[in-house]
Amino acid sequence: MEKFDEFGPEKILQVYDPETGMKGFTVVDNTALGPGKGGIRMTPTVTVEEVFKLARTMTWKCALADLPFGGAKSGIVADDKKISPEMKKKIVKAFAEGIKVIAPDVYVAAPDMNMAEEEMEIIAKTIGSKKACTGKPKSMGGLPHELGSTGFGVYHATLVAIKHLGLNVKDMTVAIEGFGNVGTFVAKFLSNDGAKIIAVSDSKGTIYNKNGLDYNKLMKVKEKTGTVINYVKCEKRDCEDIISIDADILITAAIPDLIKDKDVNKLKFKIISQGSNIPMTAETEEKLHKKGVLVIPDFVANAGGVISSYIEYIGGSEKKMFKTVEEKITKNTRLVLELSKKKNIKPRDAGMEIAIDRVKKGMKCRPMK
Questions:
Q1: What is the CA radius of gyration of the chain?
Q2: Sheet of 271-274, strands arranged across
Q3: Is residue 343 a part of any domain in this protein?
Q4: I need a labelling partner for 57 at 20 to 30 A (CA). Which of 9, 203, 207, 220 fits?
Q5: Full-model pTM
């Protein structure tokens, strides 16, 4: 187990149900700014240690997003592929019964691996509160991530980075790694602003056209064939070749550990905006920073999803969600880049400094229990 420190974890709740054999746990890392927020993942190998690390990440992500949430995370030990849909429902219900003692006052759940809106509906109904979780069905007031909140946030973080460097979005060429829920929306919004999308990848490969790819045609190809590689009038390359593209901006929106130390010298991008989580190590980011590449870290750029969750939590509308994502991502990305420039530190270090400061202030203001 990771060592306890001044920030947490505050609570580790382990639950068990003898009837279903359900084993699960919730780690509430820090509630200085509000109830701990974090998803529930269901895998056969999930551990308390894994969940703690994710909960700590949520502490910093929510603080940097300037939300009244702390950090938390949950795990249910079960193999989604080996249990029946009916048994899964029983396990989720049993888990919800187990966390009633902390949800929604101390913990607010959300979907994660093998957990979606159907499971969130079970949790909310079992606990008896719509505030027990976000990611609920639309019929229950949910704001699904399919609306594009994360991609919309990455887009605004990228705009701030472009302006920070004194560049014009209409002059930018863009490569997008991953053409799913995040990448498609970033492509849409940047295209609408006049940026030129010259390369896109998915699990089947990379496509490239220096003269630009048509977003609407690309979406039709993806929807009809399931992959971008069937787009015509382009070069086809391997998946990993996306990072070798000569473009101004790289949007990472799929796999972790995309960029390795050995790749640093061959990258030609001016800006890397992390729509995916952990696309490189902090050490690789440091090398890119020294090289002059502006890297917007994941917990800054892709916070649109958790901001959307907050709007759902307070019963806000889709319109309010988009407005809040734009305001918060824009403001916080500016703060991070300004501090990074002022102190000559990489943006991730600047973001962490801001997040830690906010949590510490929250801890000082919190009344004694």
A1: 21
A2: 235-237, 205-208, 196-202, 173-177, 249-252, 271-274, 294-296
A3: yes
A4: 203
A5: 0.93
Range of the domain at 291: 149-357
Q: Quick check: is 6 in a domain? A: no
Contacts with 223 (C-beta within 8 Å, 6 or more apart), sequence order: none
Q: Pick the catalytic residue: 23, 37, 61, 73?
A: 73
Write the DSSP string, 30-80.
E-SSSSEE--EEEETT--HHHHHHHHHHHHHHHHHTT-S-EEEEEEEE--T
Q: Which two tokens stand for residue 142?
A: 């949910």
Q: How far, in Å, CA of 209 to CA of 309, rounded? A: 37
Q: What φ, ψ does residue 31 adopt, rounded to 5°?
A: -120, 25
Contact predicate 239/201, CB 8 Å: yes
Question: Token pair of 160, please?
Answer: 């701030």
What is the length of the chain?
369
Strands (E), 85-189: 107-108, 173-177
> Active site includes 73?
yes
Please tell me the total count of domains within the chain.
Answer: 2
What is the full per-residue pLDDT of the chain (369 aa) written as tens digits? 557 899 999 999 999 999 999 999 999 999 999 999 999 999 999 999 999 999 999 999 999 999 999 999 999 999 999 999 999 999 999 999 999 999 999 999 999 999 999 999 999 999 999 999 999 999 999 998 788 999 999 999 999 999 999 999 999 999 999 999 999 999 999 999 999 999 999 999 999 999 999 999 999 999 999 999 999 989 999 999 999 999 999 999 999 999 999 999 999 999 999 999 999 999 999 999 999 999 999 999 999 999 999 999 999 999 999 999 999 999 999 999 999 999 999 999 999 999 999 999 999 886 654
